[in-house]
Amino acid sequence: MRRLLAALLIAGSQSVLAVEAGSPPPEIAGPRLDAPGQSIALSSLKGKVVYVDFWASWCAPCRISFPVLDALYRENRPRGFVVIGVNKDVSALDAKKFLAKVPVTFPLVGDANDAIAKAYDVKTMPSGYLIDRKGVVHKVHRGFTPETGPAIREEIEALLKEPS
Amino acid sequence: MRRARWIALAALLLAGCANVAPYQRGYLAREAMALDPNPGMARALEKTYSAKEAASGGASVGGGGCGCN
Question: Is the overall model pTM greater than 0.95, yes or no?
């Protein structure tokens, strides 16, 4: 009986190991939402500094984060910086409407079956994972405030100087 | 009897309740899911109600009672 109780408690709880600084990022691969016919894979971006951002149209701070991330992307792209936006909207139309208001130039992927968000164990919207040139998570940003942008800028600056 | 109790416990733990992950809140964020989709309208109705019913303070407002709004 005790064993059964333990089994039930384990079944009732849900524990996944969250991706934190120092761990290797789970793979993100799929067709691009912003460019039909093209696809993107995180594993193919080794040697670059990557910022993986989980966003949705219903996420209010994403309205602040998107212009900041896009500016960082445009500025640092030639030096090897990429942003990947993982969309968590229920309908693609919501995402489209949001992008019409807050347009960005970095690649976006969908995650309809929650596989990517589950693999990362996303705890807050938005969540950003800054990955260094060696392909290791350097820093996790949960939430987005006006201070987050300058902090990311500094971190990118330092990571871009590292050898790949 | 004991078995029934265990079955009840199993039903409690295994059924129904699902965790809604932070990244799954698309449906919850819809306007129709809000407790109060239109706060301005609700406030106006509350003000009218309290004036017409002479019940100022009846809807979680501090003070009142003079009916003079």
Answer: no
Distance CA A95, CA B47 (A): 38
Distance separating alpha carbons of residues A135 and B38, to the nearest angstrom: 47
Size of interface A-B (CB pairs under 8 A): 44
Contact A5 B9 (CB under 8 A): yes
Interface contact B23-A94, CB threshold 8 A: no
Question: For chain A, which residues make up each domain, given as ranges?
Answer: 19-161
Q: State the nearest Cα–Cα gap between B3 and chain A, in angstroms.
A: 10
User: Could you tell me which of A148, A145, A21, A163 has the C-alpha nearest to residue A72?
Assistant: A148
The topology (CATH level 3) of A19-161 is Glutaredoxin (3.40.30)
pLDDT (tens place) for every residue of chain B, 69 residues total: 678 888 777 776 666 677 788 888 888 888 888 888 788 888 888 888 877 877 665 666 555 556 555
